[in-house]
Amino acid sequence: MHSQPNRGRRGAFTLIELLVVIAIIALLIGILLPSLSSARASAQRVVCQSNMRQLELAHQLYIEDYKGRFIDAALPHGSLAGDVRSTWLIALQDYGAAPESLYSPVDRSIWRSVEDGGSDEGASLVQLRSWFVQNEDLLTDNDFGNDPEQPEIVRLTSYGLNGYTAQTVSPFLNPDPVTGRRLDQGNAYTKITRIPRTSQTIHFVMMTPIARRFGEPIDSEADFAKADHVHPNEWDFSFISETASATFASSQIWLNAHGGEPTSPSGKSNAAFFDGSVRTLSFDEMYRDTDHNLFHPEASPPTGVQP
User: Fold this and answer.
1) pLDDT per residue as tens digits for the range 210-246
2) What is the DSSP letter of 82?
3) Any alpha helices (H) in the chain, and if so which ranges?
């Protein structure tokens, strides 16, 4: 009898076949990874926009209760200024902003708490609220001599207010180069009736995650990484170069949170406007110089910017 060949079995993969399979897998990974990375970045940008929209919508409810007056800044550069319970970080939660809306999903600052992936061991917002409750009697007895030392803080938010529209940090300009009028805390842009173009005036920006000096990162101090506002009136260095204003502003605003280089005018980040809209804009779409920007309520918008 003739033996029948075994047609049901196949030999193991040859070395060449294995190499071909590995090469195909590597090729597919190379094709898919950029798409996955882009999709992830887009999703983070959308969540960040949602956070800022929550803050802005909560603020619109706030100003209805306060006769059109805006909420104020409360965090100097790296410390507290008064009772944290009166800050916009907590006050806007009473108007519907979720606690999670205070941080962008792209925020990996070293100044965030250890629990949140940072390296700062200062007090969180929850701990600060508890500290003020525990020490309320001493803090409100009009005897400053017995006030306990306030705790160090972590980075409490990824977002900050436009300094032109926050009472305590509004610039003193006499005259204001944009309007020619005196600008001080008494006549600052702190009410909705004083904002002529709500769709072209920024309210919330993204705060730098790290301190910078002339564009260079510094990790020995937090500075604006722990603040809750920016000072756009300080940014105009356009007389030096086309990029100098962005380089200086990067010490305050996170101008490349959603793309680009850290100090580049083309870096992109999110911004919330007084009309409730949130947009992803490059720095040069937000700011060109003192007279052309989206921060001063009466400045002209940078060229090409549409509401």
Assistant:
1) 999 988 999 899 999 999 999 999 999 999 999 999 9
2) S
3) 15-65, 88-91, 125-134, 136-139, 244-249, 283-286
CB 110 within 8 A of CB 118: yes
Please work out, in degrees rounded to the nearest 5, the angle formed at the alpha carbon of residue 257 by the alpha carbons of 115 and 79.
50
CA atoms within 13 A on the CB side of 255: 28
End-to-end distance of the chain based on CA atoms, in angstroms? Answer: 90
CA 205 to chain centre: 5
> From the centroid of its chain, how far is CA 234?
18
Rounded to 5 degrees, φ, ψ at 53 are -65, -40
Q: Report residue 276 as tokens.
A: 């409730």
DSSP H/E element including 293: strand 292-293
Element (H, E) at 134: helix 125-134
Per-residue pLDDT tens over the stretch 148-188: 888 899 999 999 999 999 988 899 888 999 999 998 878 88
Cα distance between residue 77 and residue 211, in whole Å: 10
